[in-house]
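> @MW can you paste both from yesterday?
MW: sure, first one:
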Amino acid sequence: KQAEKAVHQKKEQSKTKCRKARRRHINLVAEFNRRQRKNIWLETHIWHAKRFHMVKKWGYCLGDSPTEKCYRACYRAMTNHCLLQDLSYYCCLELTGKENELLKQLARICSIDTGLTFEEACCLSGRFEGSLNLYQADRYPEDMLGPVTFIWKPRGVSENRQLWIWMHPALKQDILRELKAIFQCTEPQDIYIPEPVTTSIQEEKQMDVVLSLGKKRKKEDKEGERAVPVKKIIGDGTRDPFQSYSWISQTTGIVISDRTMEILRYRLIGPLSHSILTGTLKAASLQTV
């Protein structure tokens, strides 16, 4: 019975359309969105999937080890050229509020005995990125949460400052819970709940385009091109897309926002990293009104 069942499934799969129909943009995007329901893909997923053994960790699909022997090439790139790593799976929490209030509460979860803090002058100006270890509030040196990196947005006209804290996805829930506790942040009244990547009805219609037969296929393809689905990454591997992503304190006005998968993060290693960045990035011309 199992053998007959397997043969029957193969016959059903063979009824799908040719590769040309499956490789159409509208069908590819719908298929990619469907496959990201459980494990989120990075922007460089397809490039890694062709060259690496993929693993599912922390709610993401990540490249673990290369399929070819490229260790010497990677070592050569790090020592002589440039090696790029995709760290977009790292989680980002954004804190917005008055600088004094932010520093007052953040001092409770770090210590000057371990090195830099959020109050370091070079980091507070926004010129450099800092790194430190976080602890539970007023519990140093016990109950360590984990290492994080942070960067301040340079001062502007407004009194409010913005602070971005980057952490490993395995540490996100504990650190987020501690930040919400020290700032006394609760969920805002008006919560924007994003729509899922593609609804089941939409997916069925899009898959019907792939599985349809005869002349109807061309007619449905033309209608589908008018509303081409967009590749969306809503939420991340550590948060359900229907959960809130922003919290505010009614007493201090501090806002905590979850910016995971909204800001891409790459790491360049090698002596030619700066020259590649200067050749790739161009300064924008400021226009004053």
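MW: second:
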Amino acid sequence: GLSQYSSDPRTEWDLSAYSTRDQVLEAMRNLRYKGGNTFTGLALTHVLEQNLKPDAGARLEAEKLVILLTDGKSQDDANLAAQTLKNLGIEIFAIGVKNADEVELKQVASEPLELTVYNVLDFPLLSSLVGKLTRVLCTRIKEKSNKESADIPVNTGPQLSPTDLKISAVTSKSMHLTWSPPLRPPKKYRIVYYPSKGGIPKEVILDGAVSSLRLSNLTSHTEYLVSVFPIYDTVVGDGLRGVTSTLPLSSPRSLRVSELSHNSIRLSWKAAQGATQYLVLCSAAPDRAED
């Protein structure tokens, strides 16, 4: 599978898209380069949520490997997103080109770093890594496969997926989430939320025995996208998604004007709930405006 990223990650093809080497190489030849920013953390989150799902071809019994190719320093927190993947047993190889930050590559990559971190001065030099990287990847898969003996069911569906996401008690700065757990209890839940019109995703990790959460410190009058993902030892189940808007802040009401003089007026109004201060703006009305 392959995804490109800048400020918005884009899946080029899923794990289940092609079944032969020639098909993958043909897809690579037709790939159109995506320029732009370097939001590596958002890209790793995209890979976890979109590309490593059973629906995208990720088999529960298969080892999960992510190869990150980047030519710059991330503009968001790549380390936090990478740690989430690594905590799920997903192995990350980090390859830097040109202006990549080697310190960041080492933070993102899995141990041992001498096998998982590579850095070259320019794109043509990537060809020199292919042979070694192929051998390392195949060896790591064999090593990990031999260690894993747990019998993990291949069937997903409701067994690994929570249902019935409900969003309630919505205020101008908070909301409450509840959901029904899957038949097979997860190890943890990962809740991701962010404004639908753009914003840095935030996440909360919960114990798998918990099935509710209150989100706070939200922005008023804003539509939020919310996702709930069940996390197991070797896979992330299908997530629940919901959307809702926080309420606008309450407004003052019933503005009244009294005690007019040649250079003063008195204003009074009904208070806005929760307001700690008021800003009063006053300007002369334009000519011919209502007195």
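> thanks! The longest strand covers residues 223-231.
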